[in-house]
Structure formats: C-alpha cells, structure tokens
Amino acid sequence: MKFRREDKGQAPGFQVAPMIDVMFLLLCFFMASQIFSQWETEVDVQLPTATTGLPQDRMLGEVIVNVLHDGRYVVNRRELDDRELGRLFGRIVDLSPGQPVLIRADRGTAYEHIIRVLDLCRRADIYNISFATSFVKEPPSR
C-alpha cells in the first residue's frame, strides 16, 4: 500500500501577511509625511531672524496665517481678505476654543498688516497666538 502522495511541485500560494505589513508601513509613512506638507513652508515668506529662543514643536490643529509683504493673507493655500479671515477665526473659535494661531509674516511686511491679524484674533477671542521666525545659527558679531 502506498500512503504518501507524490509532490507535483505546486507553486506556493500568495503570501498575504507580508503584503499587509508592507501596506501598513506605507500607510504610516504617507500619514507622517502629510503632516509636513501642511506646514505651509512653500508659501514665499521670508521670515525675520531671531538669535534667542528655541524651536517649538507644532501644536495639534494649529492654524497658520501667512502675511505676505503686500498685506495679503494666505491660509491653507487660499488667499483671504479681512472679512473672510475674521469669519474663519469665528468658526475656529466655535469649533474649538483655545485654538492656537501661528502668524508667519514676511520680514518686509508693514507692521499695520500684522496688527490687523492680531485685531481679528482679538475680535474672535483667540489669545493663543505665536509668531514664526527663522533662527540664526551664530549670533552676529558686534
């Protein structure tokens, strides 16, 4: 009696577990890289420099208002006027009070444009405001 079958060289089946691992790692990579794409560093804003202070970690849900040198506002790649920015701030406060706002102003921006953004923040009861600067690696010599 012959109880053993002869192996006819069947091809191994498709391995699902390694494919799931690879897809999970790709998903994690793209989710992490999406955070960096939302930092709006592509907007052409030349930040003023500071020799003091430490780089801060970004806060969750932080709203970045880019103030260009001619006084235009850009939020999430959309150009807004004063009225639209005020409405945006109002909606932000309605959804989550205490929402942080980061103001990225160009170094050539007139002071009055920054004050307009601060005034709109105050009208909407936003008090968690910070300003973006770039850091100088070496302090200037005197």
For the structure shown, list the relevant keywords:
142 residues, alpha/beta, Nucleotidyltransferase, domain 5, five-stranded mixed β-sheet, two-stranded parallel ribbon, 7 strands, 35% helix, elongated
What value does the Rg take, in angstroms?
Answer: 26 Å
Q: Between the first and last Cα atoms, what is the distance in angstroms?
A: 99 Å
In N-to-C order, the SSE pattern is HEEEEHEHEE
Query: Which strand order does the major sheet show?
Result: 4-3-2-5-6
Number of strands: 7
The number of helical segments is 3
How is the main sheet built? 5 strands, mixed
Strand content: 15-25%
Describe the global form. elongated
Average pLDDT, all residues: 78
CATH-level-2 architecture of the domain at 49-135: 2-Layer Sandwich
Residues in helices, as a percent range: 25-40%
